[in-house]
Amino acid sequence: VIVDEAHHATAASYRKVMEHYTSNPNLKVLGLTATPDRADEEALGQVFDDVAFEFDIGDGIRDGWLVPVMQQAVYVEGLDYSNIRTTAGELNGADLAAVLEFEETLHGMTTPILDICGNGKTLIFTATVAQADRMAEILNRHKPDSAEYVCGATPKEYRRELFQRYAAGDFQYLCNVGVATEGFDEPGIKYVVMARPTKSRSLFAQMAGRGTRVLPGIVEGIEPADTRRLLISQSDKPEMTIIDFVGNAGRHKLIHAADILGGKYSDEIVELANRNMEREGKPADIATELQKAEREIEKRARAKREAAERTKLKPRSRYSTTKVNPFDVLDIVPSREPGWHQGRTPTTAQLNCLKKFGVTPPENLSFTHASQLIDKLISRSQEGKPSFKQTNLLQKYGYDCAGLTFHEASNLITRIAENGWKRPA
Questions:
Q1: pLDDT band at 310 (very low <50, low <70, confident <90, very high)
Q2: Helix axis angle, 367-382 relative to 348-356, nearest 10°?
Q3: What does the pLDDT look like over 137-157, one tens digit per residue?
Q4: Is the pLDDT of residue 237 over 90?
Q5: Cα–Cα distance, 146 to 125 (Å, whole number)
Q6: CB atoms near residue 364 (< 10 Å)
Q7: What are residue 174's DSSP bridge partners?
Q8: Distance of CA 190 to CAs 81, 243, 254, 364, Å?
Q9: Which of 303-307, 310-314, 331-335, 357-361 is predicted least confidently?
Q10: Does the bond joining 112 to the residue before it have cis omega, within 30 degrees of 0?
Q11: β pairing state of 284-285 and 69-80
């Protein structure tokens, strides 16, 4: 049994079907999804035994199959989500309608859409039919015949015609309510407008993914990845931009663009990247912002550890009895553990790999964090940076290994050894 859009697989309707077929003990079940996160964080491990293959949006961008993602955060004065209730893990629909169908709010959204998107093909996600209808109306006031809207009640024949006209470039803006999410493919989209907030990582990823497609005929059959990335950068669609409207979120943790590209980063790093992009108020490359936030968090953690070490002033001879945290040694922050990996322990192959790098796996190490450590160790080796053992030893002598190469670290350790295992002057 092959289950497409497998993030729905924990639903009772899906499970009933699979329980019927899995009464055959020889049956295999394969689930495929681009968005394995669920809004309710219910683990897909209840249905699937293992994750056979992972390839997220960030991987697709790095491998040159998807276009880079930019985010433009737009602050809308008076946009206030703080009093909206949460229902079944998502923002309450009736409460959202009261906020997003307000005329002043709609103008606060359509004006920057007109300014930022220029003539680029734009897909707009709204929370209600009334909001979609009114946004299309306002856009057409400024730019006649430029906008249409579609919803679940739109007749199928007219919907098909609308999508064909949109693909052909007959109009620029398509406002939709829950229609152009799963299964909608239009590579020409350059701007995705989030005119509705969400607390669902999966829903945000589905919406954002509509704009990540590469234009036809650019990368098909092309190797290697860096060539594909170069061709994308030289095409008529070198990137896509997410326009994300920002207001007072109150107690809500709303999802933004960095959340969907930050799966391998900690929540702290993702939140910092989001804050930085909101503060800048200009288009920002999300991958770059995540890397900058990671370096900032690592810098803060390193300063905190150094301050703590200065207060201890332990004799050096006691280092041999101190447990080594490999995340501290490598200056990395443990990444967020996705729901489908929660509770999963490292494989034998992962543990053996860590031991080959000289790492003693800490207690309660998870599968996700073992994978993160291995990726870091391999990348450091490929970049010619000091090994884990070298870094651990030099840190004990008070050295910062950030700017050292493998060979420089080796020479420094030789000098320490020749000095009777004391730090040279």
A1: low
A2: 40
A3: 999 999 999 999 999 999 999
A4: yes
A5: 16
A6: 7
A7: 123, 148
A8: 27, 11, 23, 44
A9: 310-314
A10: no
A11: antiparallel
Spell out the residues 6+ positions from residue 31 whose beta carbon is closer than 8 angstroms to its own.
2, 3, 6, 9, 44, 47, 48
Residues in the chain, how many?
Answer: 425
Backbone torsions φ then ψ of 178, nearest 5 degrees? 65, 20
CA distance 135 to 174: 10
Neighbour-count burial of 298, counting CB atoms closer than 10 A to its CB (0-12 exposed, 13-18 middle, 19+ buried): middle
Q: Which of 23, 51, 63, 359 has its CA nearest to residue 225?
A: 63
* Residue-level pLDDT at 274: 86
Beta bridge partners of 147: 173
User: What separation in angstroms does the CA of 51 have from each of 6, 14, 225, 316?
Assistant: 12, 19, 24, 44
Q: State how far the Cα of 410 lies from the Cα of 394, in Å rounded to an integer.
A: 10
Q: Of 79, 195, 208, 203, which Cα lies nearest the Cα of 131?
A: 195
Full-model pTM: 0.75
Phi, psi of 149 (to 5 degrees): -135, 155
Please state the three-class secondary structure of the chain as a single string.
CEEECHHHCCCHHHHHHHHHHCCCCCCCCEEECCCCCCCCCCCHHHCCCCCCCCCCHHHHHHCCCECCEEEEEEEEEEEECCCCCEECCEECHHHHHHHHCCHHHHHHHHHHHHHHHCCCCEEEECCCHHHHHHHHHHHHHHCCCCEEEECCCCCHHHHHHHHHHHHHCCCCEEEECCCCCCCCCCCCCCEEEECCCCCCHHHHHHHHHCCCECCCCCCCCCCCHHHHHHHHHCCCCCCEEEEEEEEECCCCCCCCHHHHHCCCCCHHHHHHHHHHHHHHCCCEEHHHHHHHHHHHHHHHHHHHHHHHHHHHCCCHHHHHHCCCCHHHHCCCCCCCCCHHHCCCCCCHHHHHHHHHCCCCCCCCCCHHHHHHHHHHHHHHHHCCCCCHHHHHHHHHCCCCCCCCCHHHHHHHHHHHHHCCCCCCC
Report the alpha-carbon distance of residue 385 to residue 197 in Å, rounded: 42
